[in-house]
């Protein structure tokens, strides 16, 4: 299963088209001192300064009618030009024009619809769709004379953080819902190059969701192994290492 929902890509299992029920689960309800609890419980994300930096990706032809059209998630990260978003490589490797709506809810884009300009994919993905390279950046154009980071802010992108050093909060947009969901837990190693997290209900559309630690650093991006995971309850991210750091430098520095 891939965690995006573009109609022209491989179909997803039937469970991904079902309405997502966000009932609280009984799993891991204890809070920890490095992040707010409960852990491994998924709920609708509140409209906060942090969550509005996360948004949904759409094909450009949906810019005037967003409802029901999002297929992946992305988030704003700090950069010198203040115009950068991060997502999964498999979300942006096609030829079609895309737009990004930070803070998207219920068919509305309260912070604008931003045109995706230049896309930055690592060689490992561009040359062979290597799941260990499933991360990408994209710049977005100005809107009404403003840059996106000046409107919604941006989290820091940080490579080299040890998997599970702290808990993280994952925020993303299931294709079956018109609001973002959120879950906090501690990542675990899956392999030397992949990390995983247990968070229920992260179904199709959540590819590209940022994994944000308590220091407001993006330390993972939902994707990687099985393009994000084969079940809605366990998600994956590339371990952000040297390749991700180099890609960020290229993207932040411009063409």
Automatic annotation (TrEMBL):
GO molecular function: serine-type endopeptidase activity
InterPro entries in the cross-refs: Glutamyl_endopeptidase (IPR050966), Peptidase_S1_PA (IPR009003), Peptidase_S1_PA_chymotrypsin (IPR043504), TRYPSIN_HIS (IPR018114)
GO biological process: proteolysis
Tagged with keyword Cell cycle: no
Signal peptide per UniProt: 1-31
Keywords, alphabetical: Signal
Protein name, as recorded: Serine protease
Lineage: Bacteria, Bacillati, Actinomycetota, Actinomycetes, Kitasatosporales
